[in-house]
């Protein structure tokens, strides 16, 4: 998952352990520096290709999740190409991470490959380090989009896998025909 020689920070290791211990199914990573929603894979299938579309087997689901956020965001959904993030307007405010730029070690890729959690990355504004007085506006621009995204947790297949006595089965593998990515049940 990580490039050779890549050092994993202690706090990153702690988050990785936490993600494996709780059966999260949906998350978002909030960044600054652009105005777009990206989805896995963030690392190109061909490492020498800097901007290469690299879909997961769950491409349709990830696009739906990213669009749920983007469509509910008042600026990302604005069709003006002259605004912050306007270069993503023709894509609906979303893009496959590796198609934008490829990098190794991202949480969205880790979550998809090593947990049951689907994560998108939300670039909340074009300033990497917004001023304190801008945070209130950024919060309000993202609040409804975050709520809309969180409601997506109710989409898809859900239920309890149990034995013939009704006892839940931990770590049962769930496969969906046509999608080469299994998930497992929690506790």
From TrEMBL:
What biological process terms from GO does the record include? peptide metabolic process; protein processing
Cofactor(s) needed: Zn(2+)
In terms of SUPFAM superfamilies, this protein maps to: Carboxypeptidase regulatory domain-like (SSF49464), Zn-dependent exopeptidases (SSF53187)
Q: Which residues form the active site?
A: 123 (proton donor/acceptor)
Which residues are in the Peptidase M14 domain? 1-153
Q: Which Pfam families match?
A: Peptidase_M14
What are the UniProt keywords, alphabetically? Carboxypeptidase, Glycoprotein, Hydrolase, Metal-binding, Metalloprotease, Protease, Zinc
Give the Gene Ontology MF terms in alphabetical order: metallocarboxypeptidase activity; zinc ion binding
- Lineage, top-rank taxon, reads Eukaryota
Annotated Gene Ontology cellular component terms: extracellular space
InterPro entries found in the cross-reference section? CarboxyPept-like_regulatory, CARBOXYPEPT_ZN_2, Peptidase_M14, Peptidase_M14_domain
Assigned protein family: Belongs to the peptidase M14 family.
Protein name, please?
A: CBPZ Carboxypeptidase
